Amino acid sequence: xxxxxxxxxxxxxxxxxxxxxxxxxxxxxxxxxxxxxxxxxxxxxxxxxxxxxxxxxxxxxxxxxxxxxxxxxxxxxxxxxxxxxxxxxxxxxxxxxxxxxxxxxxxxxxxxxxxxxxxxxxxxxxxxxxxxxxxxxx
Length: 138
Hints:
- By secondary structure, the chain is α+β, with helices and mostly antiparallel strands.
- 41% of the residues lie in helices and 22% in strands.
- The chain contains 5 helices and 5 strands; from the N terminus they run βαβαββαααβ.
- Helix 4 (89-97) packs across helix 5 (108-128).
- It starts with a strand and ends with a strand.
């Protein structure tokens, strides 16, 4: 099980879900399987907002009976990630690592690396005015 953080020019979730490998023709970064709960907890860490405040910033689309999913990150969330400072990466990654979503199968070094990659991809997406999404498949 794997997933891809992908930059998308013209976001059409249904079409993206129908593609077998949407990451092959776009800028992407491969990561372990993530889901919307990982992104919800990250949004709370970097935004400082409380639970349920992320409903407009994270949208989930599924296909094939839930075996393929797309987590669409709002431009607001993308921009928050894009403006994170490298000197704050460790602290934010440690807070993210302490959430329930990372209890099994992740170590702190992996989470820090994931966080850095997400921030870097968000910076590229913001610069190019692209959408930032996470595509996953079982």
